[in-house]
Amino acid sequence: xxxxxxxxxxxxxxxxxxxxxxxxxxxxxxxxxxxxxxxxxxxxxxxxxxxxxxxxxxxxxxxxxxxxxxxxxxxxxxxxxxxxxxxxxxxxxxxxxxxxxxxxxxxxxxxxxxxxxxxxxxxxxxxxxxxxxxxxxxxxxxxxxxxxxxxxxxxxxxxxxxxxxxxxxxxxxxxxxxxxxxxxxxxxxxxxxxxxxxxxxxxxxxxxxxxxxxxxxxxxxxxxxxxxxxxxxxxxxxxxxxxxxxxxxxxxxxxxxxxxxxxxxxxxxxxxxxxxxxxxxxxxxxxxxxxxxxxxxxxxxxxxxxxxxxxxxxxxxxxxxxxxxxxxxxxxxxxxxxxxxxxxxxxxxxxxxxxxxxxxxxxxxxxxxxxxxxxxxxxxxxxxxxxxxxxxxxxxxxxxxxxxxxxxxxxxxxxxxxxxxxxxxxxxxxxxxxxxxxxxxxxxxxxxxxxxxxxxxxxxxxxxxxxxxxxxxxxxxxxxxxxxx
Length: 485
Fold this sequence. Notes:
Elements: E1 4-11, H1 24-28, E2 37-38, H2 41-46, H3 52-59, E3 63-71, H4 80-97, E4 101-106, H5 118-129, E5 135-139, H6 147-152, E6 155-158, H7 167-180, E7 185-190, H8 207-216, E8 219-222, E9 236-241, H9 244-261, H10 272-281, E10 288-292, H11 307-315, E11 320-326, H12 328-337, E12 342-347, E13 359-369, E14 372-374, E15 384-386, E16 390-395, E17 402-407, H13 417-420, E18 431-434, H14 441-444, E19 450-454
Parallel strand pairs: 1-3, 1-4, 4-5, 5-6, 10-18, 10-19, 11-17, 11-18
Antiparallel strand pairs: 2-3, 7-9, 8-9, 12-13, 13-16, 14-15, 16-17
Helix pairs in contact: 3-7, 4-5, 8-9, 10-11
């Protein structure tokens, strides 16, 4: 039994193709998760939230020494200054704590300006001050596991659901692995293809069966983060067993299942225009959800692309909502003019992607908020999003009924509260456009008659074969049954 455990968290999902890096200020600032927490604040600030560290704290039967916890909205790689400062604080805390175990709440797809394997480098530095201390880590389902990371951590747990409804449970499982599995053999495998995020929904096959199998084999499965340009990017797994031979066998059995599943994954998506047409052809009733999967702030997207917005306007949608579009200038303009005001504005379109340009339109301010949004859905319920001055803007064009939530900070539209806090009821809408890849399903699928993920160009490409990779390992396939790198 471990008596005294250091705990810390350092989370970032790094998109190699996003232009803006994650700075120290980004980790200090609260967004959908709390801002940087230190010492006892780690326990107080995460209590009751669906976070791995909260689950570990709740489950652990030991004295805990909280050091630091932080996370930043997915973006480009982490700056050297931010990584070095946070890593040093964790290292110093571990060194001073005099503990007999360490738990780390990490992501698994962090890239820094200097390191393609951010978590592996963090563990390497921690091992300098704690070479023999058992280390348990929890990782996101989208982790890109490296051999170094697996070797440096004594035990690993990985989310098993996408949407990530089991983050706290994954932290609790890390405690159980720390107690029971530290001395077990670990066998690491990785598949030879990249799986784009929209194919990773665990509520459907083939991923649902893969996670059932992983649980049966006492294995941890990561589906990978396709926007991370690293030698480790792909589906990967690690299996644990008292018998090294059985660990190897279990890992290979799961890998074989992963390889067989490749041909069952369909990465093809309709265009935004085609998706809107499909939605409008359905009979009136419950809302139709259109997912703008490539412009997901939760995967490093700019949250300001206007491909889906243009398609909805051009089709003349009625009773429609769209969110959350990040445009600080438009949001501030709406706050300055007030509810009921009408004005000309340019919405979004500043990501720099080819063909993207701001959407010029006239809008009416329907509602305003300070951007402090209390999450209500299962994934983040009890938490608070802080997205800056926010407005509900009605697109003032004849023959159109479309309202758009415009924020000052990037955020993923994974909760109906982003509409409700501005007085817009999603259940009453005919069509709802959400800038999210899969997480929206937890809160929006229950009210939907149909859900249609669609492709409008964004920084989180749904087609790995189109991405400008440079660092992948040779021979990995760019998407299910895709071309070789």
